[in-house]
């Protein structure tokens, strides 16, 4: 009898552990993109050089009249959507021949990639030579959570829309199995796309899971000290470790500051004062050595 009870107890304990783990995972998922976390970082990447990603971004900005739109000098567009209680940040890499590695750098830090394709192609192709090349390179590097957005479907004859969408859907499924195509021609479509970005399961990339990373909102250089401001993602950042800046190399940090979130979800917090306080200061005895004259704050 004791053995049976012990077995039942172990089974109940295992069930409770699974339940708690599932609840913890769901709770973390619901908090992503909220005011307590960094906004979803979304990379808009057209698969044809003729597609203008700025038109896609413009549609996303205007799809919800209650959404708050912020733009900064680094080219990041922040979109706070009160109805979803989530925030999104959009980046647009340069496209075309010669910009492949720059686009890959954008994808390294993005949470989601929106591949923009057009239905206005008489040959039924969804990518040109550059699009095919950057897609293959992104797959080899490690692709952030992908979504395919189809534009210009309403520009073709109504009777051809369903066959065209089905044809493009088959191409997408060959590239990434089980990937659903999202139309993007109306405000309702744009809202559905935002909802999907906020709810879909995120890909876990090993090269990011074990490292902190940041896409700079603001960069200042004064008295041989480089100040970089942005949302920190990934693992915690150690002030005594080196940081790598693409194209520049490794740098020591002087300190880490924490500031008031400048892109709130609630309109009532738009006029709040931006305060900054020191979070951590480097210890020379614990710092990882770097080249001479390199310092980052």
Automatic annotation (TrEMBL):
Gene Ontology BP terms: endonucleolytic cleavage of tricistronic rRNA transcript (SSU-rRNA, 5.8S rRNA, LSU-rRNA); maturation of SSU-rRNA from tricistronic rRNA transcript (SSU-rRNA, 5.8S rRNA, LSU-rRNA)
Biological source species: Phlebotomus papatasi
Taxonomy, superkingdom: Eukaryota
Region of interest (Disordered), ranges: 1-29
Biased composition (Basic and acidic residues): 1-11
Gene Ontology MF, one: GTP binding
Name recorded for this polypeptide: Uncharacterized protein
GO CC entries: nucleus; preribosome, small subunit precursor
Listed SMART domains: AARP2CN
């Amino acid at each position: 009898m004791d053995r049976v009870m012990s077995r039942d107890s172990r089974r109940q304990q295992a069930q409770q552990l699974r339940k708690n783990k599932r609840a913890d995972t769901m709770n973390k998922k619901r908090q992503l993109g909220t005011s307590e976390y960094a906004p979803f970082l979304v990379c808009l990447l057209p698969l044809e050089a003729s597609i203008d990603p700025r038109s896609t971004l413009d549609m996303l900005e205007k799809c919800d009249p209650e959404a708050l739109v912020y733009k900064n000098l680094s080219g990041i567009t922040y979109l706070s959507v009160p109805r979803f209680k989530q925030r999104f940040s959009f980046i647009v890499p340069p496209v075309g021949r010669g910009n492949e590695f720059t686009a890959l750098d954008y994808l390294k830090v993005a949470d989601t990639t929106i591949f923009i394709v057009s239905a206005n192609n008489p040959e039924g192709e969804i990518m040109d030579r550059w699009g095919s090349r950057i897609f293959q390179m992104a797959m080899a590097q490690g692709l952030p959570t992908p979504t395919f957005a189809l534009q210009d479907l309403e520009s073709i004859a109504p009777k051809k829309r369903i066959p065209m969408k089905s044809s493009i859907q088959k191409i997408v499924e060959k590239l990434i199995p089980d990937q659903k195509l999202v139309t993007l021609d109306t405000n309702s479509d744009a809202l559905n796309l935002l909802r999907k970005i906020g709810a879909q399961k995120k890909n876990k990339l090993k090269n990011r899971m074990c490292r902190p990373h940041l896409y700079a909102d603001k960069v200042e250089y004064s008295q041989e000290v480089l100040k970089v401001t942005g949302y920190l993602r990934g693992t915690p950042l150690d002030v005594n470790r080196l940081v790598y800046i693409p194209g520049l190399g490794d740098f020591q940090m002087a300190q880490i500051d924490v500031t008031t979130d400048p892109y709130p979800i609630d309109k009532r917090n738009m006029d709040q004062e931006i305060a900054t306080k020191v979070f951590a200061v480097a210890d020379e005895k614990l710092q990882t050595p770097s080249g001479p004259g390199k310092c980052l704050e």
